[in-house]
């Protein structure tokens, strides 16, 4: 019986490994906000400037939104919504932009920040499902919809309280969908089983102010992987995603002030970085290095050159920031010191992405600013999207996919 049980267990583990391998993002997928582990780095040979005629395709959207497109294979998923509260999940063909299917969801209208929308959260996607969080003051819902548009499961996580509305994006780890629920009300971190929506673990949090940052994965050498979260009160937190336990936490921000984490944490070499602050007050970007004893020590702090809304991009030995005040900065990733800074005639709410040695960032007016990933400022070119955008692009299949307030646009790739 023991031998038989072990054999069955080994078969089960082998089957689970096969399923997880099939679900794991391939190099050319863009399966979450800012793509592979939130790095913003994709693979494509893209132009530095272009004209309207150069777009591969354009597709109109039925509503507004700040969420980013995500892709799996030939399917591109994006959310939208209208001012009355209705929400839409759309699936387009990534090659030609044609609409494959659309799901409509009714929702009550509610008050939120004027720059927010009911479709600000970016979905996550794997080989079986696209995962979408929606929230109103009365109900926080997470849904799994298969690639044909059929709902597989739906879970309610209680009410969602925030004066600015909802906008949190989930990530995937093995067979778990992980997302923060950090709001003005009762808060927690949660992991849901991707197959069923069942809660695997839940960690209480002290929030007091809604958090909008998307977690990322940190893989320390010789130790289990950790999921990184940022929060005004907690600072930077690492969680063992398999055990559902906090492994380390460092109070990196200013808990005595009214701050908010909007930009997402990211990894630069062996450093974990997080940002927090307030739009009209001080902002912090803090780099910490976790050690083998399960503790993290602050390595450097930058409080003069910090973007509040957009997530910085780490590329090679540098970190690039595009601020909401129209300033582009390059920092030394090792020590946080400013290498160069340049003011441009644009403001940025979206986050930069990178293909090769070109960095792309969409301005609020829908101008794409393209710079070199280098230790000197080099403006390589510009491209116009034709209308306003606060969405971060996706890079997949050798192309870049933009989302504006009213449409999707695709650039690059072979015909």
Secondary structure layout plus pairing:
Blueprint: H1 2-23, E1 41-42, E2 55-60, E3 70-72, E4 75-81, E5 87-93, E6 99-105, E7 124-125, E8 129-135, E9 140-146, E10 151-156, E11 171-173, E12 176-181, E13 187-193, E14 199-205, E15 216-218, E16 226-231, E17 235-240, E18 245-250, E19 266-268, E20 271-277, E21 283-290, E22 296-302, E23 313-315, E24 318-322, E25 327-332, E26 338-343, E27 353-355, E28 358-362, E29 367-372, E30 379-384, E31 394-396, E32 399-403, E33 407-411
Parallel strand pairs: 1-27
Antiparallel strand pairs: 2-33, 3-4, 4-5, 5-6, 7-8, 8-9, 9-10, 11-12, 12-13, 13-14, 15-16, 16-17, 17-18, 19-20, 20-21, 21-22, 23-24, 24-25, 25-26, 27-28, 28-29, 29-30, 31-32, 32-33
Explain how this protein is built.
This protein is mainly beta. It has one domain: 7 Propeller (Methylamine Dehydrogenase, Chain H), CATH 2.130.10. 5% of the residues lie in helices and 42% in strands. The protein contains one helix and 33 strands. The strands form eight sheets. A five-stranded mixed sheet has the order 1-27-28-29-30, with no helix packed on it. A four-stranded antiparallel sheet has the order 2-33-32-31, with no helix packed on it. A hairpin with a 7-residue loop joins β15 and β16. The chain is globular, with a radius of gyration of 20 Å. The protein starts with a helix and ends with a strand.
């Amino acid at each position: 019986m023991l031998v038989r049980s072990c054999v069955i267990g080994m078969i089960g583990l082998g089957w689970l490994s096969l399923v997880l391998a099939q679900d794991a993002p391939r190099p050319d997928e863009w399966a979450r906000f800012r793509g592979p582990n939130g790095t913003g780095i994709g693979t494509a040979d893209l132009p530095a400037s272009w004209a309207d005629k150069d777009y591969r395709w354009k597709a109109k959207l039925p509503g507004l939104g700040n969420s980013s497109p995500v892709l799996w294979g030939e399917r591109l998923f994006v959310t939208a919504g209208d001012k009355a509260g209705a929400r839409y999940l759309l699936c387009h063909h990534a090659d030609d932009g044609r609409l494959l299917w659309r799901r409509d969801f009714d929702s009550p209208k509610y008050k939120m920040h004027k720059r927010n929308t009911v479709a600000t959260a970016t979905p996550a996607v794997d080989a079986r499902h696209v995962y979408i969080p929606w929230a109103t003051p009365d109900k926080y819902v997470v849904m799994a919809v298969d690639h044909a548009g059929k709902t597989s499961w739906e879970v309610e996580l209680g009410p969602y309280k925030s004066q600015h509305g909802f906008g949190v994006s989930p990530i995937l780890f093995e067979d778990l969908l992980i997302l923060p629920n950090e709001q003005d009300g009762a808060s927690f971190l949660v992991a849901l089983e991707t197959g069923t929506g069942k809660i695997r673990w839940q960690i209480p949090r002290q929030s007091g102010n809604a958090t909008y940052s998307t977690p990322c994965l940190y893989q320390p050498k010789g130790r289990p992987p950790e999921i990184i979260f940022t929060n005004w009160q907690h600072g930077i937190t690492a969680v063992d995603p398999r055990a559902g336990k906090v492994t380390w936490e460092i109070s990196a921000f200013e808990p005595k002030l009214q701050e908010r984490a909007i930009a997402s944490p990211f990894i630069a070499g062996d450093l974990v970085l997080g940002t927090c602050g307030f739009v009209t007050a001080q902002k912090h970007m803090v780099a910490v290095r976790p050690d083998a004893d399960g503790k993290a020590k602050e390595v450097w702090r930058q409080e003069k050159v910090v973007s509040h809304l957009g997530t910085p991009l780490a590329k090679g030995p540098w970190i690039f920031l595009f601020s909401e005040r129209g300033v582009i900065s390059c920092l030394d990733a090792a020590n946080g010191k400013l290498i160069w800074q340049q003011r441009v005639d644009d403001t940025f709410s979206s986050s930069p992405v990178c293909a090769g040695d070109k960095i792309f960032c969409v301005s609020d007016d829908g101008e794409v600013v393209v710079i070199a990933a280098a230790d000197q400022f080099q403006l390589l070119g510009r491209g116009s999207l034709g209308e306003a955008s606060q969405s971060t692009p996706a890079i997949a299949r050798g192309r870049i996919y933009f989302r504006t307030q009213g449409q999707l646009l695709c650039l690059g790739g072979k015909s």
